[in-house]
Amino acid sequence: MSLGQSLIRLGTEAKVRGETRYGFDMPQAGDLHLACVRAEQAPAKIVSINPAQALAIPGVVRVFTAADVPGEHRLGIIAVSRDQEFIAPGLVRQPGQCVALVAAETPEAARAGARAVVVVLEQQPGVWSYDEAMAPDAPLVQPDNPGGNLLRENKIRRGDADAALKDSAVVVEATYTTGRIAHCALELEGGRAWLEGGRVMVTACTQNPHYDQADLARFLGVGEDRVRVIQAETGGGFGGKLDLSVQPFLALAAWHLKRPVCLRYTREESFLATAKRHDLRMHFISGADEQGNITALRARIDGDTGAFASYGLAVNMRAAVHATGPYRTPHVDVVARMAYSNNTFNGAMRGFGCPQVALAHEAQMNALAAALGMDPFDLRKQNALRHGDHTATGQLLGAGVGLSACLERIEPIYRKWQSERRHADEYREGVGVGVMFYGIGNTGASNPSTAQLEWRPDGRVTLFTGAADIGQGSDTALMQIAASRLGLPMERIDLCRGDTDRTTNAGATSASRQTYISGNAVMGAAANLEMQLVQGAREMLNQRHLEVELKDGMLVAADGRAVEPAEVARHLAKAGGRARGEGRFDPNFTALDPETGQGRPYATYAYAAQCARVRVDTASAMVKVTDVAAAHDVGRAVNPRSVQGQICGGVVMGVGMALMEHYQQGRTDNLQAYHIPTAADAPDITPLIVEEPEPSGPYGAKGVGEPALIPTAPAIAGAVSQALGRPMRHLPISLERVMEALTAAEGETTRED
Amino acid sequence: MPLEFTLNGQKVSLEDVPGEATLLEVLRQRLGMLGAKEGCGVGECGACTVLLDGKAVNGCLTAAWQAAGRQIATVEGLAQGDELHPMQRGFVETGAVQCGFCTPGMILTSLDLVEQEPVPGDQQIRRALAGNLCRCTGYHDVVRAVRRGAKYMRGEGEEQ
Question: What is the spatial distance between Cα A615 and Cα A626, in angstroms, rounded to a whole number?
Fold first, then answer.
């Protein structure tokens, strides 16, 4: 039984040997190299593009413009908001948008060619924030959008929030903001494309090969059968490799030139041309009764999705659905609005809006506790969602709610750290707590996964999955699930992953969904395979009604006879058949009511509680996060070490979100100016696994990828607020913001003196 | 210009290396050593780390000519056939590898550290690795990996 064991992940040895080939590493001798010509001004009309000087450079083969796109210009993963033009046709909507593509014999010639293309632009008026976008008579970013610059409004309405707030014993109100954040996967986007038998082959880093195939076919104006996408080994994604990046350029150039082509983004290009985390502004009013029971939440959430919708719809809806946090809130009135602007586009990043709203709901809990004179940890325990509660969308929570267990695991650590807290002249210490819930899978929408398991005549088994492993460990988790279900050691199973010719759609590696949804698809494939093997064994034993079961990799009949599954596979092969089980799983959901947001958006939720301890240096205003303890209810840990690895990685990404990271286009376009946490910035982390089994999960498993990040920044913000004696409501909590708070605190002390 | 150096113990001789070429470009494009990665091109991320006479350097900031006559070690040269280098074993066994893109650089920086400090403490490891960015692991298991690898390099057994 490999399930629940901390097996070493598949591919680890190749990675430590430096033998793993990422999309980035694909170029081969004889390939053409591509380079994008990117507009510096936006929004702007393209007056002319003159490639003559570029074409005069030795080695430059071709310059493509939007006129060379044979199919649809506008791509995007959410079908109702497909609006991203990979080569701008006429209008540049955001800075850095590609306007032409150069193909050349060497990377140097391609880059020189890109610099030599003469692009004449005519600047247009633009909008650069939510408020500008929503002002009357604002210039339109996407004139075809029926809502003007408003991409979407999502409402969650339950009970009567206004009346409940009026009747509440305490009401707290504040506005919170978060910064734009860059994914900064260490691997830069890269890949290669070529033609084979009249089809275009694309291998590149991606979180969703089957989506890529569909959109590339649309871009080329061909059927999907003419495009094959093979996921290259992918060096981290965090949501940034869900949208297409290099793939359309690769496919277009290979299609026209009929030669292998390769393209790799520079870090600057990766910053400029791929999605960021949405910056949100969140106005929250929360109430509680005298006993500390939460009564109501009224929240207004404004977001700027930039020039392209990307995952803006998903972020907006998720932010609304999760705005209450994991607390019983009988009366809810949430309105989330997402607007277009001419900023570089925002999209999916680890948590889809939940890390942002968690800052607000957790700070509101601290404020309520202060107003009530209650302990903030006790207030959370008292209001934490439990079995039998309803969420803000009216979903009844049955089994699988492990939040109280997470809080129990964290509490002794939290109490100890609070008791050890010291202030001195040189430093102040603080301890904060962050709590979250997170719906697994897409919100109120079908998002199935499929998988196949084949028992081969040679005795080995192959697992076929379209699920992209991007470093998070889904390959190993799915193999462990398959091995356990079939009663085999994992070594007996081969993996075929992420190739659109050989695997079927598993949906995106996003929304912490692959362990739960693709894991269930694998379970289904195993059950289907078992049924076929049992049937085959009955045929071979000439007894149609014999009871046969698959046990420890053998087919054992009730009369004591045993058949090897490989024999059955050989038996089926003689008749031209195969022992190949098909699995499909789509979580149980209902769509949300458009007016009230009521419904069952997810089949299950993950829960977590983290606490953070910080020390603020009063002279330098430096904040050091010294420790984080993180308890996560994952349902069942398929591979505990992988789960711990996800938790620790999420926590450190949360440290960056809390204290350091703030993307400003044109100013922070490489890692010199955009700082992510180093080993020296990372706190000591205590990852704690809580297993509250989810009955609908594979062996009870849910997911952990995004939950790992979500509570960290709120916990740190709470800790810094405690250290400084004033609420820190804006991320990142930069040196300047700490300095300001320290100075203000000092002023108050002086006045009191 | 011509360029000669020792790569993972083997002499290499190259012709026509442009004066402005970086060591990383020469390793990747001319010698097919793809274990060293470019993550930023400006010396911030450490994914291109290689050893120059045993010292960890950023391949993207090192001019190719600086390697002339010297010893270059890349991740490809560490394992002896099937047998991993003790530091590689440390990384495998502790689960310190997720996407793996930063791993070669992390391992080479760790070797430089252990050369100077055979029994590195956690804070020394964190400081030494501060120039090698990782977005996946939170560095938690990487610190354990380096401790374990250092222990194996000292000829001691499994870390408890």
Answer: 7
